[in-house]
Design brief:
Layout lengths: L2 E6 L5 H10 L3 E7 L3 H11 L4 E2 L2 H7 L4 E4 L6 H10 L3 E4 L7 H14 L3 E3 L7 H12 L5 E9 L16 H5 L1 H12 L3 E9 L11 E8 L4 E7 L12 E6 L2 E6 L2 E6 L3 E4 L9 H15 L7 H20 L3 E2 H5 L1
Parallel strand pairs: 1-2, 1-4, 2-3, 4-5, 5-6, 7-10
Antiparallel strand pairs: 7-11, 8-9, 8-15, 9-10, 11-12, 12-13, 13-14
Helix pairs in contact: 4-5, 5-10, 6-8, 8-10
Amino acid sequence: MKLRVIQVGVGGFGRGWVEVLARSKEVEVTGLVDLNEDVLREAGERLGVDELFTNFDEALGKVEADAVLDITPPAFRTEITLKALKAGKHVLSEKPLALTMEEAKAIVRAADEAGRVYMVSQNYRFNPVPRTIRKLLEERARGELGYVLVEYQMGRRGKSGDFRLEMDYPLLVDMSIHHFDLMRYLLDSDVEWVQVESFRPSWSWYRHDPSFFMVMKMEDGTLISYAGSWVARGFETTWNGRWRFACSEGSLLWDNDKLYLSAGTKGRRKAELVDMPLTNQDYSLHEFVSAVSEGREPETSGRDNIRSLAVVFASVLSARTGRRVKVEEVLG
């Protein structure tokens, strides 16, 4: 039987999720919610759904559903998610889990108390390259891992009115959680501490620091150097960034969304990637549905994802204070 889902937020980034739902054979969309009636009608026509609402409470009261897909802006995440869990619905949400650690803990606690699945769609890890990297590291394909270098450089220009242009630490707060989550997944280890130096280049079009250099230590002892910027000019990376895994017998290089294994001191060859019929948000939805049907915790559950979110808060604290911050200090 298909999982019955209400999607909350169908405009903006929610449009992409409408297409994910349209492709899925595992769900039945029984209701849609958005404040914008035009995008609401558009989504309804695309999915063949007649139950359209501008009020989430009304949707919960009138529509039969097993789960809620929360694609609302971050400021509404806690309110929507807690209401859904209280109503006995499983929840799949976009990142971030919450805007504060207190709210994140409240959501995880509410999911536990309700006995419902809560999952955050950290879709960057749900792709063949990171799946292959983790496999190769576990197999020690190039020996023992020594350290990791991560470079993320983009000249991201937001549209007029983009809140990221005015927010504090825009890259750290809005984007870096994808890379932090990848680090935790790829190394199968949590982050122990971070040390961040953030800055604003003279040509920046962001109000606050859009760039940083960071050193971090994983709980397994691995050191990571991470450099990021949203005002790079030329030689940009992809959204995933450029990763080098330095090992005792060679290196792995994730560059331009391709994966290479070192061959000798200068040579390289493309790695054979694991097969994934579903990727990105499509895989997120599949993992969520599978977790609900199997009665298990999903890969990026709230309980797991709060540890990626904590790295964000620890990084911001380090940038503000100039000191090394342990992640456990933020988790409490």
